[in-house]
Known about the structure:
Blueprint: E1 3-12, E2 17-19, H1 20-24, H2 31-38, E3 42-44, H3 51-66, E4 75-79, H4 90-98, E5 104-108, H5 114-127, E6 133-141, H6 151-154, E7 159-169, E8 173-181, E9 189-190, E10 214-215, H7 217-239, E11 246-251, H8 256-266, H9 277-280, H10 287-297, E12 306-313, E13 317-324
The structure holds acetyl coenzyme *A (ACO).
Amino acid sequence: MITTRIIATGACVPEQIITNDDLAKIVDTSDEWITQRTGIKERRISSGENTSDLAIGTARQLLEKAEVSAESIDLIIAASVTPDYTTPSLACMIQKEIGAVNAVAFDITAACSGFMYALSVADKYIRSGVYDNAIVIGAETLSKIVNWEDRSTCVLFGDGSGGAYVEKSEDCGIIQEELGSKGEIYDILTGGYTPCSNAFNDVESGVDSMWYVSMNGREVFRFATKSVVTSIRNVLEKAGVSADELKYIVPHQANSRIVEIVSNKLKIPFDKFYMNMDRFGNTSSASVPIALNELNEKGLIERGDKILLTGFGGGMTWGTMLITW
Ligand code: ACO
């Protein structure tokens, strides 16, 4: 059976580190509050790099680590809610900079589930025999759309990019997945609203603030714990794999309390969940691949291990994938 295997992982984040204490200088917050409520201690924030700079950094790493030429790339999919432009796509900008002249390149949007959705799309092209390989990247500069005067959101997010180079395989790879969307509650988490103003129409009043990330934290928390628990359960059941067989779970790095609840509800030991939100915060579509790359670079996973990737986010959306590494 043809499946899709992750051959290499990569990540590229801004150098600038902003700690909780740094944030306490600009909004009424504290290291104690942020750490206790979220598990986040610091995050990387752009000092000028845009999303494409981070995404291109990741793409270059992927080519190097996988030892493949840019010309051999068939497909580039980028996931982002903070691309440089509405058009061109981030994927086309990556294509140009790395010289992947033979690739088809496009973006998708599924907020923090973006990497899961992008990997799923790449998998379908590969399984169906259309393409043999793909570069899949999640990249964000959320600092562009965060309101730095709103303590309830600005402490949560960070900038960064991560990704994977995947190839057609006949043994290991993606073995089961579940994607889901619940558009009826889209308004519990929004950002980047562009008003419909034109020469024949007054700008809608009061919409400027809708550019910023706005979130009903409690509702998102409830949604996240429910959707992640259900989708992990569904994916393991469909695959006939028990939680004991998993080496690691790489969850979306939004909040360590969400992960604790998921761990308790599923009775999966907390230390099986790989987390690095303490150092990177919530980087939306980049969070799962940044964590996966760290796990991989530390040599904590070996070929043949079963790992589970799971994300949730705006839309609302979720995505869980079981992989034989
Ligand atoms: N520092 C200090 N106090 C704060 C801060 C802050 N940074 N932010 C909010 N507070 C205050 C509030 O004003 C409130 O004060 P009040 O009681 O006087 O009104 C109090 O803390 C409690 O606020 P809550 O919003 O009820 O705090 P809660 O315990 O729910 O934690 C949090 C908030 C961390 C946002 C939580 O709801 C959460 O994690 N939700 C999920 C969010 C999430 O995962 N988002 C990302 C997923 S989607 C994506 O990744 C794009």
